[in-house]
C-alpha cells in the first residue's frame, strides 16, 4: 500500500517539477534582406492572400481548402485553411497594422492540435533601397504541453519553414 502511494506521489512530484522547469513561452523568427524599397515590400506583405505565393505551408498542400473573411490588408481580415496533415486546420486574423512597420496576426490552430500564437511580419529600412523583413510567431506553452516542449525544438522545426518562405518571398519581390 505504501509503495503504491510513494510511486503515485513520485510521479505527481515529477510531473510538477517538469511543469515548473519546462519552457513557458516560445518564439521563432527569421529575417532576410530584400532589395526593394520598404513601402513596396510592406504593401505586398500586408495582404495575407499573398502568402499563397511564398508560404512553405501552401507548398506542402497546394490543394488545401481556403476561405477568406473581410478585406485583405485590413484589421479583422481572416484567412482560414483546411489542409492535409502537414498544414492542418486553422485560421489567421490580422489584429494590428502599423503602416510601413509591421503586420500582427493571431494564429489559431485547431488540428492536428489546438493552439494559438501571435504572428508578426515586420519591415525595416536598412538603406540603399533594401528592406529587412522579419517573420515570426510566439506564444505560451500551457501545462502539460510545455513538458512536451522540453523534447521538441520549435525553433529548429518551424525555423526552416520560415527560412524557406522568406527565400521564396525574396525571389518574388526582387523579380
UniProtKB/TrEMBL annotation:
Which keywords does this chain's UniProt record carry? Membrane, Transmembrane, Transmembrane helix
Q: What domain of life?
A: Bacteria
- Transmembrane segments annotated in the record for this chain: 6-23
**Which SUPFAM superfamilies does this chain map to?**
Bet v1-like
Does the UniProt entry include the keyword Membrane?
yes
According to UniProt, the name of this protein is: SRPBCC family protein
**What species is given as this protein's source?**
Flavivirga spongiicola
Amino acid at each position: 500500500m505504501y509503495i503504491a502511494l510513494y510511486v503515485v506521489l513520485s510521479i505527481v512530484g515529477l510531473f510538477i517539477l517538469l511543469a515548473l522547469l519546462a519552457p513557458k513561452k516560445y518564439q521563432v523568427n527569421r529575417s532576410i534582406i530584400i532589395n526593394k524599397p520598404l513601402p513596396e515590400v510592406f504593401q505586398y506583405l500586408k495582404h495575407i492572400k499573398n502568402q499563397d505565393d511564398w508560404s512553405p505551408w501552401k507548398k506542402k498542400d497546394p490543394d488545401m481548402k481556403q476561405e477568406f473573411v473581410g478585406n485583405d490588408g485590413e484589421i479583422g481580415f481572416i484567412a482560414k485553411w483546411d489542409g492535409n496533415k502537414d498544414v492542418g486546420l486553422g485560421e489567421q486574423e490580422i489584429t494590428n497594422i502599423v503602416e510601413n512597420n509591421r503586420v500582427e496576426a493571431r494564429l489559431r490552430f485547431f488540428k492536428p492540435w489546438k493552439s494559438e500564437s501571435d504572428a508578426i511580419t515586420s519591415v525595416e529600412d536598412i538603406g540603399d533601397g533594401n528592406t529587412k523583413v522579419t517573420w515570426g510567431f510566439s506564444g505560451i506553452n500551457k501545462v502539460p504541453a510545455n513538458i512536451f516542449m522540453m523534447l521538441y525544438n520549435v525553433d529548429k522545426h518551424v525555423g526552416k519553414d520560415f527560412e524557406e518562405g522568406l527565400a521564396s518571398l525574396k525571389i518574388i519581390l526582387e523579380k
